[in-house]
Design brief:
The chain is mainly beta and 725 residues long.
Length: 725
């Protein structure tokens, strides 16, 4: 499948180039690129085309071109630019939190609290989002429960990844970026007509990075030189075919990766790990290095999507059919020392099929949309741990330095069937007031086959559970003038229940998040100001805990989340744009008692503690300046300062799972030729080389409940050149 996709993309690149070269020489996109920036941003956050300033939501939009020119770091960019959002990546698995709601459970059977969509398709597998970042038009981030239009698992919000689509005229670009740490990135895009009303777009991207983190065991057999490496190739092919008065968009994409993967650093602890008992060795304490005797990270992702848009009278029918799959294998050194004490492998594969259909229209004062969706998601994982335990851990008669070999294998397969029906509408009560209401009913069924092998014959079992819940939103809009929108709403979000596959524990109940929100979107000559205030009542939230052998999900009783968000832009002078985004959030557990495996499995009352991965304060200040040069070319400069207050990785809010507050700086500049056909950009990220933990997971009580951490990228630089036509 992957070879077919890449081969088709290459063929289409040649075909489009041949058909378009005779028609144009350097026009199309180049002419558009030379035009002045347009302030109005059109989004599809409500599944309709609206201006961002006319959309009554807590909504942030990131431009795809700017992300690419700044050395696009994927979902990490969101945490640096979007209020109330944080991002972690444990074992290379994406974990997004919005307003304190998300998911740090990375085993099958659970779901994220922030829904991720790629061109209208829900992505169940958080290990398979990478290809969606290829050739992006924009990223839309919706904060707060989105239960009506975006459905289940959108209790914290939704991230909508929107790709560039086929164009009616010939255009394209080719570019390369180089940087330190062995960074190489190449992009190629061609788009245009093929004849007979058919248009197409082909996109290809290659990324290579030697890695940010030094391996102290480099040079020994099987040891990689560095961690946080990347070697990947992605491609997407889109073909739009006229169908009557509508069109059918067919999309095929593929992504392959084979590298050392993330640098999973085992943090040293005061209490000795098994490796120290056995051999007197400890993990590295150096800030930007680790010890790994061997690491492997292989990932293959593919997808095929059809989107039909067909007018039906004054309304429009949209049908989206999709099938996709992924295979992922990651192996890492879990003891983090120079001796072979413990190696962990996660072997995961998934398939997803989905079908969604909705009709939207306008009947006088009513703008409406109604639809239904079906999804089937199957995910399998096997976790393998091979290693040695101190003999005294199993038999007090044995010495601590007696190596006792063991093998752990656990996991299983989860199949999810999800059905839902939904409706959403806006009723104009007058020229200034509008009522909005939407609702959805979701019915989820999960079935699991699980197994566990450890110091005994293999245990097998089966689980099945179902949950039916409604979610939705109601609100009112007030538009006193063309440049002022004031809105208020109440929303109910539903996150599906979960199965702890391989742990042989009861099913976990669904989460419910009820949020009351009010906000305003204001604009004037050269400025915009958007702010939101909200309060959320969060019940039965699913929290990660560590059982005797593995991570499991459990329900905390409740949480209360209050916050304020702000986004503003100002153009005080020609060519100068200033930006500010920020948030204050008070996110605390209600009544909740949890067991801390790192403190002898004692029970602690964590009521009033901060929710994991939430900062009370976070924000970004940015400045952009455009200077016109002689001959018509221009220079664009940009600088960003991001700050965050402290946050914790577990519910216990202890110092051993804490990231202190920090400030980081990014800079960039780009030269664009007079006709827009050439561009050269440079960027520098994390200028002060601030060391920041991006994720931390407490795993494996057998090995002393070790802390496995990942770091954000250190200071790094890049330069790129791009040809547009």
């Amino acid at each position: 499948m992957r070879r077919t996709i890449f081969g088709s993309a290459a063929s289409l690149l040649a075909l489009v180039a041949a058909s378009g070269a005779a028609a144009q020489e350097g026009g199309g996109a180049a002419a558009g690129a030379a035009e002045a920036d347009v302030d109005e941003i059109i989004v599809t956050a409500e599944r309709r085309n609206t201006s961002v300033q006319d959309t009554p939501l807590a909504l942030s939009v990131l431009d795809g071109d700017k992300l690419r020119q700044g050395g696009n770091q994927g979902l990490t960019e969101l945490a640096q630019q979007v209020p109330s959002l944080s991002f972690a990546q444990s074992f290379g698995i994406a974990q997004i939190f919005i307003r304190g709601v998300g998911n740090n459970f990375f085993s099958p059977g659970g779901d994220p609290g922030v829904a991720t969509y790629a061109d209208g398709v829900y992505l169940s597998d958080q290990e398979a989002t990478a290809v969606a970042f290829l050739d992006l038009a924009r990223i839309e981030v919706l904060r707060g429960p989105q239960g009506a239009l975006y459905g289940r698992n959108a209790t914290g919000g939704a991230v909508n990844l929107v790709s560039e689509g086929p164009t009616d005229s010939f255009e394209g670009r080719m570019g390369v970026q180089l940087g330190d740490f062995g960074r190489v990135q190449g992009d190629a895009v061609l788009s245009g007509p093929l004849g007979g009303g058919i248009t197409a777009r082909a996109s290809v991207q290659y990324r290579r990075l030697d890695g940010f983190t030094r391996n102290e065991l480099a040079g020994t057999p099987r040891a990689r030189d560095r961690g946080d490496a990347e070697d990947s190739l992605g491609g997407r092919l889109q073909v739009a075919v006229p169908v009557g008065a509508g069109r059918l968009l067919l999309t095929a994409s593929g992504y392959t990766q084979n590298d050392a993967g993330p640098a999973l650093k085992i943090l040293a602890d005061p209490f000795p790990h098994p490796a120290e008992f056995l051999f007197g060795v400890r993990p590295s304490t150096a800030p930007r290095s680790f010890k790994s005797e061997g690491a492997e990270n292989r990932r293959d992702v593919w997808s095929v999507t059809g989107r039909l848009e067909q007018p039906i009278g004054a309304a429009q029918l949209v049908v989206i059919a999709d099938t996709r799959g992924s295979d992922r294998l990651i192996t890492y050194d879990q003891d983090g020392t120079e001796r072979e004490v413990s190696t962990t492998t996660l072997d995961t594969d998934s398939t997803q099929s989905s079908l969604e259909a909705y009709v939207q229209g306008n009947s006088g004062s009513l703008d409406w949309l109604a639809g239904a969706t079906w999804l089937r998601f199957r995910q399998s994982r096997t976790t393998l741990v091979d290693g040695l335990l101190p003999g005294a851990f199993l038999d007090p008669q044995l010495p601590l330095n007696f190596p006792f070999p063991y093998a752990f294998a656990g996991g299983g397969t989860v199949t999810t069937e999800a059905l839902a029906a939904y409706a959403d509408g806006k009723l104009a009560l007058s020229d200034k007031f509008a009522l909005r209401i939407g609702g959805r009913y979701s019915d989820d069924t999960k079935r699991a086959r699980e197994f566990l092998t450890f110091l005994a014959p293999t245990i097998t079992g089966q689980q099945r559970d179902s949950w039916g819940e409604w979610s939705g939103k109601a609100g009112i809009d007030f538009t006193p003038s063309e440049d002022v929108l004031i809105y208020g709403s109440i929303a109910r979000g539903f996150k599906s229940g979960a199965l702890n596959v391989g742990a042989f524990t009861p099913a976990v109940e669904p989460e419910i998040n009820v949020t009351i929100e009010s906000g305003a979107r204001l604009s004037g000559a050269g400025w915009t100001l958007n702010f939101t205030g909200y309060t959320s009542d969060y019940s039965d939230l699913q929290i990660v805990q560590v059982g005797p052998l593995s991570q499991i999900l459990a329900n905390a009783a409740s949480a209360r989340i209050n916050g304020i968000e702000l986004e503003a832009s100002l153009k005080p002078a020609d060519g100068l744009t200033l930006g500010l985004s920020g948030s204050w959030m008070d996110a605390e557990f209600g009544s909740f008692v949890s067991t801390d495996q790192r403190r002898g499995f004692q029970a602690f009352d964590v009521s009033g503690n901060q929710l994991p991965l939430t900062s009370r304060w976070q924000g970004t200040v940015s400045a952009q300046y455009r200077a016109d040069l002689a001959g018509g070319s221009r220079l664009d400069f940009n600088g960003t300062m991001q700050w965050r207050s402290e946050y914790f990785f577990t519910e216990f809010n202890t110092a051993d799972a804490r990231q202190g507050g920090f400030v980081r700086f990014d800079l960039g500049a780009m030269w664009t030729s007079a006709d827009g056909s050439w561009a050269v950009n440079i960027f520098a990220r994390n200028l002060t080389d601030r060391r920041v933990l991006s994720s931390l997971a407490v795993v494996s009580p057998l090995l002393g409940s070790v802390r496995v951490a990942s770091l954000e990228a250190p200071r790094h630089f890049g330069i790129g050149i791009e040809r547009r036509f």
